[in-house]
Amino acid sequence: MTYRRDLPFNDLPSISPTGVDLETPIILKKLTSAARNLGELNGLCETLPDPTLLINTIILQESRNSSAIENIVTTQDELYKATIEAPSDQNHATKEVLSYRDALYVGLERMKARKGLILTNSMVEIVQTIKQNQAGLRTTPGTALKNAINGEIVYTPPVGEFVIREKLAALENFINNDSESSIDPLVRLALIHYQFEAIHPFVDGNGRAGRILNTLYLVQQGLLTQPVLYTSSYIVQYKAEYYQLLRGVTETENWQDWVLFMLTAIAETSKITTSKIRNILSLREALEHKIKEALGASYNHGLLNEMFALPYLKIETLEKKKIAHRQTASTWLNKLSNADVLRPQKMGRTTYFINYRLMEILVN
């Protein structure tokens, strides 16, 4: 049957494209680069004494960029301030960005609990966490992806719960059964990402869930020990090309350009993430000396850790984390402000103490 954008694509082919050469010289060259850069990032993560101290800040950047692809925009200040505030004080966009971070953690927990398997039920839980509701798979017709400017239909995904479940089951098998294909895992990731987005199994949240799936797959395959790669920064930069190449696979089976795009995203964001982590480690070492000078005998290592887990601090944060009583916390933060380690910023009745050098690394 001839493909038509305005009709449900129930004939979406199997994930393993037949008769398509995925080992062309140009793909293999890009694959080598992506694998090398990703391996360097993973090696750096494995040397960290406590990687969880860095993960939160890196993952928040991925959350923000992935949400921005869906036109959910929050500022860096709003985002990091929200990490230490109650949900009632967060705006809608910021809540959605933080929900993305929570959804990634949910996905990792489910994968570990299910012996490394990435299952359809896990995808459902991920989307429910992103959207903060009980949404399941699409069960009603009428979904069509449209051009935001002129309203033209650009793609109509498969329709019917049975069809969607059948295609997700095939995708699930491809993800979890390495013996199904000899294709390199990074190329497989490109195929998986396309297939998930083409199935479009949910009413909303598909793009963000698909990008979480990318990270989960890299962890599952042992290519990353920590979920720190944020390919969304590359996709945000080349958003129009990203959607154009997705449609190119659907309409003309142009797999090569799509695979090259995803391999480039992995290569480039691996380099960026590696650089950010190294810069953060250097900053942490430099600030540790400055903090010890400013606080003297009252130096607390927990305070240093908190400064790099949360770029925005306030007195109540240190109280809540049981790092210091209120008076001590106030004294520490003010001393660090006077020493130009932190930068105070008053918003309403609250004074936030910002690790501004860390923020500069994260946003650039």
Describe this structure in words.
The protein has 2 domains: 25-276, Fic-like fold; 280-363, Arc Repressor Mutant, subunit A, CATH 1.10.10.10. It has 15 helices and 5 strands. It has helices at 25-47, 52-69, 76-82, 92-113, 120-131, 161-176, 185-199, 206-220, 232-237, 239-252, 255-295, 301-309, 315-320, 326-338, 356-363, and strands at residues 145-146, 153-155, 312-313, 343-347, 350-354. A hairpin with a 6-residue loop joins β1 (145-146) and β2. The chain is elongated. It starts with 24 loop residues before the first helix and ends with a helix.
**Helix proportion of residues, in percent?**
55-70%
Secondary structure class reads: mainly alpha
Q: Can you tell me the residue ranges where pLDDT is under 50 for at least 5 consecutive residues?
A: none
Through-space gap between termini: 48 Å
Basic shape? elongated
CATH superfamily placement of the largest domain: Fido-like domain
Which fold name fills CATH's third level, the topology of the largest domain?
Answer: Fic-like fold
Hey, roughly how much beta strand do the residues contain?
Answer: under 5%
The CATH architecture classification of the largest domain is: Orthogonal Bundle
User: Could you state the order of secondary-structure elements as H and E?
Assistant: HHHHHEEHHHHHHHEHHEEH
